[in-house]
């Protein structure tokens, strides 16, 4: 009896201790940094413009004139398995399948000055340094690592627009800080268009760099301030022969020259240091001007108090994390949850200076009046769960993101909403026009309160732009023929869903004509459904279905980053009709069963680099997004207990608190948003609808602290690892006789109760 008593006391004490930890304690930025995660482990504040992080190698985008597949591992600049660090740069993409950025790389060194990064095989040939994970710490808005080759302790933190470095040096007369203005992620020889540097005094420089990468016309200004004056400085130009050099040869520009320009520059700054001396740097960004970069620096971090800036960032993270407070069965689940919130709140990124100015898509300078401008819109991914999550816990930010999309539309000579936009550029990556999903969802839920008629106009104009990826054929035929389009089926399906979103927005605004047009277009998915095999299938311009067709292959079958088995489920706006055309609920259930239980051999996705074995369950590719809603379709096949079983299976299989803990690219927060919502017990299969389908919560309990002052509580009674099934659900004390709740149910506050069991309730 005494042993039982002390066990209860110890357990209670552990709960009390656990409850006292700040929520940002559970953030692990190293999660997802290996294999397919493509996340960065450095320092950033929520939605910050600066994401200051280490680069572990300099892999070129091309070799011998061809794409270098190894570069894919470095989408975020960092690979957990690497043994050296090249330096610390200020901009990154998080969890993407393509990349850019890596601006303004800084590396502290000692001893002989080396001005090339060297190689992983021969690190001694350059300025890179070996490091050990034993001496590496990554947490909320903080990164620390010991650079073994130089005995320098590197520490990083940030504000919204400023990266703050703190380097602790040994005693030496040969201390250097290198500013590599050639370094890029997904680099190639001509990526740097032009670079300019102005040395204002012995502790301040400003400048800019223009690059042509994934974002083909990108300009980034900076201001760099040192806490200690440098003794001397210089540069190394790698331009080779310049066609026209003017008469700058009158000066010796290699050392201590105040005005530098070229396509490829690396600068060095020399110091003498005492043992344990700290040299601090602040580097601010602006897309507008050097003046704005300097203003951002002075406004955001006017002092040299590194610890205070670190704490300010931790407080910002704590404020955001407190929007959802949870209790879990174990600490690992809590780490996974709050790290998912961390990843979800990285993108989209701030793209406005402190004075409200920003660079627009038209490359002109604009003033954001009444909103904050954002960039990094990976909309093919994030329209599914990230923006619907924002409508619950970040409504004000999501309204600003919608305003940013509409500003993009105003500035576009194409008169189109963003597809995949970043840093005042449209990349046209992926398919669909999923801005309309985000915009419609935000308006229908009352989040965006701006000019709704203008928003509808922007959606319609985008959806009728005949020169965009098969839209002309889609509008004329009701589908995209496979004769001239490699992703004809998936694009048809995605357009049909987006058209349904436009119809819902038109209905909200009482525009019957537009509603009728787009609700009809939303049925176009039927035109690529082959009833003879009950799969979506490529179709020729003459109306015939393609004969040579493989439902398992992800390559060359008419789908982008997926196969027919997954994409044939992509009718999120009308699952009932899809089920009917698929032979009814029993046949549809069998299709879903096969999706999760069959084996997909490697050969069927070998040529699709975004899909790996780690992200696959059966033939279900959770590591990629097209079928993220599929597990919830069992609810529509009258077998919700299978939704419950597989949701919990995916939560446990695809998300772990380790560097390889993500089953695929996080894709700017989509993978993490799926986890957050599913862990809470619900998920939006069709943004634009007010429904959130119920699954099986992984938490013990949770409280959503809503911006309107209300609280939405979730309780999972009898929660255990084996209790993955739901016996019944109560909403505010009343039993639900449906497998969904609504947005209003959440935002009105109240209590959602799941009664968990280890046996399926086959009602």
Describe the structure.
- The longest helix is centred in the middle third of the chain and has 21 residues, at 488-508.
- The protein is built from 18 helices and 39 strands.
- The chain starts with a helix and ends in a 6-residue tail after the last strand.
- A nine-stranded antiparallel β-sheet has the order 8-9-10-11-19-15-14-13-17.
- It has a domain at 28-319: Beta-galactosidase, Chain A, domain 5 (Distorted Sandwich).
- Residues 1-18 have low confidence and may be disordered.
- Helix 4 (331-344) crosses helix 17, helix 8 runs antiparallel to helix 9 (452-463) and helix 9 (452-463) packs antiparallel against helix 11 (488-508).
- With 763 residues, the protein is an alpha+beta fold.
Portion of residues in helices?
25-40%
- Please give the alpha-carbon distance between the first and last residues: 42 Å
Global mean pLDDT: 94
CATH architecture of the domain at 28-319: Distorted Sandwich
Total helical elements: 18
**What's the CATH topology name of the domain at 28-319?**
Beta-galactosidase, Chain A, domain 5
- In terms of structural class, how would the helical and strand content be classed? alpha+beta
Number of strands: 39
Q: What is the alpha-carbon Rg in Å?
A: 27 Å
What's the helix and strand layout?
Blueprint: H1 2-20, E1 53-55, E2 62-63, E3 66-67, E4 84-85, E5 87-89, E6 105-110, E7 129-130, E8 136-139, E9 142-147, E10 152-158, E11 162-169, E12 172-180, E13 192-201, E14 204-211, E15 218-226, E16 232-237, E17 259-262, E18 265-273, E19 277-286, H2 290-300, H3 306-321, E20 324-327, H4 331-344, E21 349-350, E22 357-359, E23 365-367, E24 374-375, E25 377-378, H5 379-382, H6 386-393, H7 395-411, E26 420-422, E27 425-426, H8 435-444, H9 452-463, H10 471-477, H11 488-508, H12 512-521, E28 529-530, E29 535-536, H13 564-567, H14 575-581, H15 585-597, E30 616-617, E31 620-621, H16 640-654, H17 670-680, E32 682-683, E33 691-694, E34 701-705, E35 711-717, E36 725-731, E37 734-735, E38 740-742, H18 743-747, E39 750-757
Parallel strand pairs: 35-39
Antiparallel strand pairs: 1-5, 2-3, 4-7, 6-12, 8-9, 9-10, 10-11, 11-19, 12-18, 13-14, 13-17, 14-15, 15-19, 16-18, 20-34, 21-24, 22-23, 25-26, 26-27, 28-29, 30-31, 32-33, 33-38, 34-35, 36-37, 36-39
Helix pairs in contact: 4-17, 6-7, 7-8, 8-9, 8-11, 9-11, 11-12
């Amino acid at each position: 009896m005494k042993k039982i008593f002390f066990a209860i006391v110890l357990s209670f004490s552990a709960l009390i201790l656990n409850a006292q930890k700040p929520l940002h304690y559970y953030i692990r930025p190293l999660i997802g940094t290996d294999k397919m995660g493509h996340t960065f482990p450095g320092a950033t504040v929520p939605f910050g413009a600066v994401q200051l992080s280490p680069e572990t190698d300099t892999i070129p985008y091309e070799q011998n004139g061809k794409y270098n597949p190894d570069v894919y591992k470095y989408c975020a600049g960092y690979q957990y398995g690497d043994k050296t660090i090249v330096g610390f740069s200020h901009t990154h993409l998080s969890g993407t399948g393509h990349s850019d950025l890596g601006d303004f790389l800084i590396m502290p060194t000692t001893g002989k000055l080396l001005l090339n990064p060297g190689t992983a095989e021969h690190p001694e040939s350059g300025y890179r340094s070996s490091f050990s994970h034993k001496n590496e710490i990554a947490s909320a808005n903080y990164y620390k690592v010991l650079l073994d080759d130089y005995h320098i302790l590197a520490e990083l933190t940030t504000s919204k627009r400023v990266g703050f470095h703190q380097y602790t040096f040994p005693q030496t007369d040969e201390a250097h800080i290198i500013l590599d203005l050639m370094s890029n992620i997904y680099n190639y020889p001509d990526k740097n268009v032009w670079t300019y540097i102005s040395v204002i005094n012995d502790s301040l420089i400003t400048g800019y760099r223009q690059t042509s990468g994934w974002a083909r016309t990108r300009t980034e200004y900076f201001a760099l301030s040192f806490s200690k004056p440098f003794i001397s400085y210089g540069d190394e130009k790698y331009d080779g022969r310049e066609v026209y050099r003017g008469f700058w040869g009158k000066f010796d520009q290699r050392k201590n020259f105040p005005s530098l320009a070229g396509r490829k520059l690396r600068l060095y700054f020399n110091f003498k240091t005492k043992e344990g001396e700290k040299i601090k740097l602040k580097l601010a960004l602006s897309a507008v001007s050097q003046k704005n970069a300097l203003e951002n620096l002075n406004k955001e971090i006017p002092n040299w108090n590194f610890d205070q800036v670190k704490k300010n960032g931790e407080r910002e993270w704590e404020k955001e994390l407190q929007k959802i407070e949870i209790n879990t069965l174990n600490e690992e689940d809590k780490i996974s949850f709050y790290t998912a919130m961390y990843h979800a709140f990285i993108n989209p990124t701030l793209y406005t200076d402190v004075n409200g100015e920003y660079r627009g898509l038209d490359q002109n300078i604009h003033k954001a009046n009444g909103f904050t401008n954002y960039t990094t819109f990976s909309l093919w991914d994030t329209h599914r769960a990230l923006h619907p999550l924002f409508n619950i816990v970040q409504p004000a930010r999501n309204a600003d993101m919608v305003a940013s999309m509409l500003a993009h539309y105003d500035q576009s000579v194409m008169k189109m909403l963003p597809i995949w936009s970043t840093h005042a550029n449209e990349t046209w990556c992926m398919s669909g026009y999923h801005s309309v999903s985000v915009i419609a969802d935000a308006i229908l839920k009352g989040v965006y309160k701006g000019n709704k008629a203008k928003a509808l106009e922007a959606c319609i104009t985008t959806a009728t732009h005949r020169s965009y990826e098969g839209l002309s054929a889609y509008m004329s035929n009701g589908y995209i023929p496979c004769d001239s389009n490699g992703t004809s089926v998936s694009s048809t399906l995605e357009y049909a869903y987006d058209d349904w979103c436009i119809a819902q927005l038109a209905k909200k605004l009482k525009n019957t004509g537009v509603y009728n047009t787009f609700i009809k277009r939303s049925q176009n998915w039927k035109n690529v459904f082959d009833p003879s095999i009950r799969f979506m299938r490529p179709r020729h311009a003459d109306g015939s279905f393609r004969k040579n067709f493989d439902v398992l292959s992800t390559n060359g079958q008419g789908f982008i980053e997926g196969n027919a088995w997954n994409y044939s489920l992509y009718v999120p706006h009308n699952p009932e009709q899809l089920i009917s055309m698929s032979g009814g609920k029993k046949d549809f259930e069998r299709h879903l069963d096969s999706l999760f239980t069959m084996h997909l051999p490697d050969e069927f996705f070998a040529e699709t680099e975004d899909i790996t074995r780690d992200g696959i369950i059966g033939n279900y590719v959770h590591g990629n997004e097209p079928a993220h809603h599929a597990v919830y379709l069992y609810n529509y096949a009258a077998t919700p207990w299978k939704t419950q079983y597989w949701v919990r299976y995916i939560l446990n299989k695809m998300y772990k608190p380790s560097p390889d803990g993500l089953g695929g690219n996080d894709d700017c927060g989509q993978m993490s948003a799926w986890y957050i919502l599913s862990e809470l017990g619900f998920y939006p299969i069709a943004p634009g609808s007010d429904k959130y389908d119920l699954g099986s919560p992984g938490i013990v309990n949770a409280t959503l602290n809503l911006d309107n002052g209300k609280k939405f509580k979730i309780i999972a009674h009898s929660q255990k690892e084996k209790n993955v099934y739901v016996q019944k659900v109560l909403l505010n004390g009343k039993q639900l006789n449906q497998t969904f709740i609504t947005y209003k149910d959440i935002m009105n506050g109240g209590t959602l109760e799941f009664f968990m069991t280890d046996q399926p309730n086959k009602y």
